[in-house]
Amino acid sequence: MTPQAPRARILLLGGAGETAAALAAVRGRAGLEVRVLCDGAPPKGVVSDLPEVTPDRAGLTQALRAGGFSHLLDVTHGFAGRISTDAAAACKATGAQYALLRRPAWRPAPGDRWTDVPDMAAASDSIAPFERVFTNVGRALLPALAGFGGQLFVRQTTRHAMPPPRGNIRYVFGSPPFSHDAEVAVLRELAVDAVLFRNTGGTASETKVSAARALGLQMVMLSRPVAPEGTHLPDVAAVARWADSL
User: Fold this and answer.
1) How far is the C-alpha of 110 from the C-alpha of 152, rounded, in Å?
2) What is the pLDDT of residues 96-109, one digit of tens each?
3) CA-to-CA distance for 246 and 242, rounded, in angstroms?
4) Which tens digits make up the pLDDT trace of 108-167?
5) Rg for the chain, CA atoms, rounded
6) The pTM of the whole model exceeds 0.85
7) 99 vs 230: CA distance, rounded Å
8) With 0-12 CB in 10 A as exposed, 13-18 as middle and 19+ as buried, what is 64?
9) N or C: which end of the chain has fewer CB within 10 A?
10) What structural domains and CATH numbers belong to the chain?
11) CB-based contacts of 42: which residues, under 8 Å, 6+ apart?
């Protein structure tokens, strides 16, 4: 008997923390064929099926065509630069359907001292009046804060021996997940008067926001890039429903 062709071939583009859960939500469903390509090193528990493919517009376009993929599920990090834009463009070029797992953004609560900023230049301006600022923006974005004259505490989730780029920067090491109480303790110990966070959204890392809120700190939130057009899925449960609908 000739094997029945899958009703959908899905290229899962991974990199965010939900990659393994999203893959589990899709893989194993009858009629679906899934292959994985990761932006950078695959997250724990995930194996990239297409390690030779460069996840840019040209590479994704070629991979979609060569694999006969009907859908691309984007599970990359919300601040991963152009990769989502490239993925959506590759889908448009090949006729594949584009879907994006995108956590709901964090929103201010009544009484919050909260400032949304569109980019790092605006973030630098917003933290300028403060003396001690805690941030999770990562080393790659630190050059944009070169003009900040106060003390900057930068969270690092992977321990390393690299020195900070400037004398007013101190790395704060820690391994997620971070509880609300642990985040409160860190912010209180550092005696910060403001925080600068990437608005990654979702519930997994929202404890840093609730901790800053509990301490009444100024919160500066760096907005994510605008999501490409397509099917937007807020969580892994939505991914499972999307897979069932194909």
Assistant:
1) 27
2) 999 999 999 999 99
3) 7
4) 999 999 999 999 999 999 999 999 999 999 888 999 999 999 999 999 988 999 999 999
5) 20
6) yes
7) 6
8) buried
9) N
10) 8-103+227-245 (3.40.50.280), 113-222 (3.40.50)
11) 14, 19, 36, 48
